[in-house]
C-alpha cells in the first residue's frame, strides 16, 4: 500500500495526561483501572496431615517462610512449605519448655518465653538445641513472668506482670492495681528496658496462670511496639524508646492474635466460638496505622487464634478449630470508581487534529491485554469545529474536557448526544462516518474483582485508505456494496499493515535488552538455556550477553564458575581432584576427603551457599546446568554449604563459619570435641548448662 497513512499514537504516560480521566493509573507499561493490594488466600497448611505433630499451641515464621510449630506435648517442629517437609527439631522429652510457651524465631535461634519454666525467657540454637542464653529476671532482683512475646531484628519484647505476690494457696497472683509492662531484651540476652503505662494495671486480683492467652504483642522493625489486653480491650502503642504513643479502646469482642506489617498497618483476629449452623462472621480486622480504623480483611473468614506477618508481608493465621494455618498474601484488586461504585475507568481524549477540514478518519488500532470478564470500549465523534453546543451553551470542547471543576462522569454525559455506538474490545476497528478535522475518543475500561484491561498503545490512523482504491471504478459505483466491500477489504489491509509493522520491529525481537516475557525466554533457548519459572529476566539477559564467553570456556573451571555465578548471583567454590589428591594419600584423611569430595579422579565439587538455592527445584535446575556444561565423562557434585560448623564436614572459615573471638581452648591430638558443641559466646564463657547441656547433645568422657 503506497498511499501515505499517518497516525497519532498514545503509548507514554505523558501522552495520556492530555485528557480527562477517572480511576485510571499507569502501570506495567500501560493504562489500566486503579489497583490496590488486598490480602487473599495463597496456601492452607492442614496440621492434621503432619504426621507426629500434636495440637499446635503456638507457631512462628522463620527465614524462607519456614514455619516453626510448638505442639501440646512441648515438641518443636519445623515445616518447610516449599518442599512440604516437616521434622522434629529438639529430641522428645527435652524438658526445656512446655506447651504453654510462646516463641519467636530469628535467623539462627528460637526465642522461648515459658511462664512455667525455671528460666522464663531463653534463646536456643535452631541447629542443635544449645542454650545461647537464659533469663529469669526482668530487672535487678525482679522476677520475670512472661505473658506474650514478639521479636524484631534487634530485640525481644516480652509482656510481663511487674507486680505479683503469693496467694493463700501458694499460687502467684497479680493483685488489684498490679502493673503490666513490656520488657525489651537484646537478642544476646542483655540491655533490657521496661515499657510502662500508668493506666496499664490489673483491675481485680487474678491468678497469673489464668492470664495465659490474655495478652498479645507485635513489633514493627525499627518502629512502634504494640500490646493488646484482651480483658480490658485496650491496645497500647509504645515508641522504640519506651514512650507511650497511644492508648486505643477496641470493641468488646473476643480478639486473639496481633500483627503489624511493614507499612505499620495493625491486624487483630476474632477468636469467638460460634454455633456450627450459624454463618461464620469472624474476620481478621485491619486497625489501620493508629488502631482506630476498623475494616475487615475479606480474604479470610474463620477463627483466628494467632497471627504472624513475615518479612514479605505475608500473613499467617492459626485456626485451632480447623487445625489449619492459612497464609494470606497481598494480591491485586480492582478499585471501584468513586462516582459510580463500579469497577471501571474512563478517559476522554483531547481532540486529535488532522489540520485539514473534512478529513475522513480511518481506524483505531490498540495494543492491549484484555483478560476474560473484562472489556475495553471506544466511542468517538468528529467535527470540523473545535467548539460545539454542550448543555445548551456553546463551548470549546478541549477546554470543557480539561475543566477540573467538572466531574468526568458529567463531561461524558453532557457529550452523550455526540458519541458513537461503542466499539467493544477493538484491537483494530474502522471508524465509520468519522469525518472532520477534529476527532475525540471516549475509552472505557470495565474490569472484574481481580483483573483489568491494560491499554499499552493506541493509534488513530488517517486519512481513510482502502484496498478498494486499487480495484476498477466499477466496484465503487454502488454506495451500499462499496461500503460492504471496503469493510471486507480492510481485513486484508490490516493484515498487510501488521506484517509491515512486525518486519519494521524485527530487530527488537532479537535484542535481549528489549525483549521480555515469553519472547525473552524463547531467545534463551537459542543458547541452550532450559528456562522455567525460576529464571528471572535479568538472569536470562545476562546469560545471553555472556553466552559467547560461556561457550568459549564450556567444560572448563572458568566457564562453570561463570555459569553458576549468573544463576546464583555469587561465584561458587569449585574443588577439583588434584587439589585434595595429597590429602587422599594420607590414610587418616582418605575416608574424610572421599566423603566430602568423592574418590573418582574425574569428579569435581561445586559449593554454593543455601540462600542462593532456596528450594529443591532451584537445586535440581543448577545440577542439570552443571551436568550439561561439565566435561565429558566427569561427575559434577553440587553441595549446599550450611551456615553452621560441623567438624569433618563442609565447614570453611570465612565462608559458612566464623569465629567471633579467639578460642580459649587448646586442643592436642588426644582431645576432640563432638559435633554440635558450642565453644564460646560473648559474655557467657565457662557456664555449664548454658553452653553445654550434658546428656542432651554432649557427653563427658
From TrEMBL:
It holds the Pfam family Tail_P2_I. It comes from the Bacteria. InterPro entries: Tail_protein_I, Unchr_phage_tail-like, WD40/YVTN_repeat-like_dom_sf. This is Phage tail protein. SUPFAM superfamilies: Calcium-dependent phosphotriesterase. NCBIfam families: tail_TIGR02242. It comes from Paenibacillus sabuli.
Amino acid at each position: 500500500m503506497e498511499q501515505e497513512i499517518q497516525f497519532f499514537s498514545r503509548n507514554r504516560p505523558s501522552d495520556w495526561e492530555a485528557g480527562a480521566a477517572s480511576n485510571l493509573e499507569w502501570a506495567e507499561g500501560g493504562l489500566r483501572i486503579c489497583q490496590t493490594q488486598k490480602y487473599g488466600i495463597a496456601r492452607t497448611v492442614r496440621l492434621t496431615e503432619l504426621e507426629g505433630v500434636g495440637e499446635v499451641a503456638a507457631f512462628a515464621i522463620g527465614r524462607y517462610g519456614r514455619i516453626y510449630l510448638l505442639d501440646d506435648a512441648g515438641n518443636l517442629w519445623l515445616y518447610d512449605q516449599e518442599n512440604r517437609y516437616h521434622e522434629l527439631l529438639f529430641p522428645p522429652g527435652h524438658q526445656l519448655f512446655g506447651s504453654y510457651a510462646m516463641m519467636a524465631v530469628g535467623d539462627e535461634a528460637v526465642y522461648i518465653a515459658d511462664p512455667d519454666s525455671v528460666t522464663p525467657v531463653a534463646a536456643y540454637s535452631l541447629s542443635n538445641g544449645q542454650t545461647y542464653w537464659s533469663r529469669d529476671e526482668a530487672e535487678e532482683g525482679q522476677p520475670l513472668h512472661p505473658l506474650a512475646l514478639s521479636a524484631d531484628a534487634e530485640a525481644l519484647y516480652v509482656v510481663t506482670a511487674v507486680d505479683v505476690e503469693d496467694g493463700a494457696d501458694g499460687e502467684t497472683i497479680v493483685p488489684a492495681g498490679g502493673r503490666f509492662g513490656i520488657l525489651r531484651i537484646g537478642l544476646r540476652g542483655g540491655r533490657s528496658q521496661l515499657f510502662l503505662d500508668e493506666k496499664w494495671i490489673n483491675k481485680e486480683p487474678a491468678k497469673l496462670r489464668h492470664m495465659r492467652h490474655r495478652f498479645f504483642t507485635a513489633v514493627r522493625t525499627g518502629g512502634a511496639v504494640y500490646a493488646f489486653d484482651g480483658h480490658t480491650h485496650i491496645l497500647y502503642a509504645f515508641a522504640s524508646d519506651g514512650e507511650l504513643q497511644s492508648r486505643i479502646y477496641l470493641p468488646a469482642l473476643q480478639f486473639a492474635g496481633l500483627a503489624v506489617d511493614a507499612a505499620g498497618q495493625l491486624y487483630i483476629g476474632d477468636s469467638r466460638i460460634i454455633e456450627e449452623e450459624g454463618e461464620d462472621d469472624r474476620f481478621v480486622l485491619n486497625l489501620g496505622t493508629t488502631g482506630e480504623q476498623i475494616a475487615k480483611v475479606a480474604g479470610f473468614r474463620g477463627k483466628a487464634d494467632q497471627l504472624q506477618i513475615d518479612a514479605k508481608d505475608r500473613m499467617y493465621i492459626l485456626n485451632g478449630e480447623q487445625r489449619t494455618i492459612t497464609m494470606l498474601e497481598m494480591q491485586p484488586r480492582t478499585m471501584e470508581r468513586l462516582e459510580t461504585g463500579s469497577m471501571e475507568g474512563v478517559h476522554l481524549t483531547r481532540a486529535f487534529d488532522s489540520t485539514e477540514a473534512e478529513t475522513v478518519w480511518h481506524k483505531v488500532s490498540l495494543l492491549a491485554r484484555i483478560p476474560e470478564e473484562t472489556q475495553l470500549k471506544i466511542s468517538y465523534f468528529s467535527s470540523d469545529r473545535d467548539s460545539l453546543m454542550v448543555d445548551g451553551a456553546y463551548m470549546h470542547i478541549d477546554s470543557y474536557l480539561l475543566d477540573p471543576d467538572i466531574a468526568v462522569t458529567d463531561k461524558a454525559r453532557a457529550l452523550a448526544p455526540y458519541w458513537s455506538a461503542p466499539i467493544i474490545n477493538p484491537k483494530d476497528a474502522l471508524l465509520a462516518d468519522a469525518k472532520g478535522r477534529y476527532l475525540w475518543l471516549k475509552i472505557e475500561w470495565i474490569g472484574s474483582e481481580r483483573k483489568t484491561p491494560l491499554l499499552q498503545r493506541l493509534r488513530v490512523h488517517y486519512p481513510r485508505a482502502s484496498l478498494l482504491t486499487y480495484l476498477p471504478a466499477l466496484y465503487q459505483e454502488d454506495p451500499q456494496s462499496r461500503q460492504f466491500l471496503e469493510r471486507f477489504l480492510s481485513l486484508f489491509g490490516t493484515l498487510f499493515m501488521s506484517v509491515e509493522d512486525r518486519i519494521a520491529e524485527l530487530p527488537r525481537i532479537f535484542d535481549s535488552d528489549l525483549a521480555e516475557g515469553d519472547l525473552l525466554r524463547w531467545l534463551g533457548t537459542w543458547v541452550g538455556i532450559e528456562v522455567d519459572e525460576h529464571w528471572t529476566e535479568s538472569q536470562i539477559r545476562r546469560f545471553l550477553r555472556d553466552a559467547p564467553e560461556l561457550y568459549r570456556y564450556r567444560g572448563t573451571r572458568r566457564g562453570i564458575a561463570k555459569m553458576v555465578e549468573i544463576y546464583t548471583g555469587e561465584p561458587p567454590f569449585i574443588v577439583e581432584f588434584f587439589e585434595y589428591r595429597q590429602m587422599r594419600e594420607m590414610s587418616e584423611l582418605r575416608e574424610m576427603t572421599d566423603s566430602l569430595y568423592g574418590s573418582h579422579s574425574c569428579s569435581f565439587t561445586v559449593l554454593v551457599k543455601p540462600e542462593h538455592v532456596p528450594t529443591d527445584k532451584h537445586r535440581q535446575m543448577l545440577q542439570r546446568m552443571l551436568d550439561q556444561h561439565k566435561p565429558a565423562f566427569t561427575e559434577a557434585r553440587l553441595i549446599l554449604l550450611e551456615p553452621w560448623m560441623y567438624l569433618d564436614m563442609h565447614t570453611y572459615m570465612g565462608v559458612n563459619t566464623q569465629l567471633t573471638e579467639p578460642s580459649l581452648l587448646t586442643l592436642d591430638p588426644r582431645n576432640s570435641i563432638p559435633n554440635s558443641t558450642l565453644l564460646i559466646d560473648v559474655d557467657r564463657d565457662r557456664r555449664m548448662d548454658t553452653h553445654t547441656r550434658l546428656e542432651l547433645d554432649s557427653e563427658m568422657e
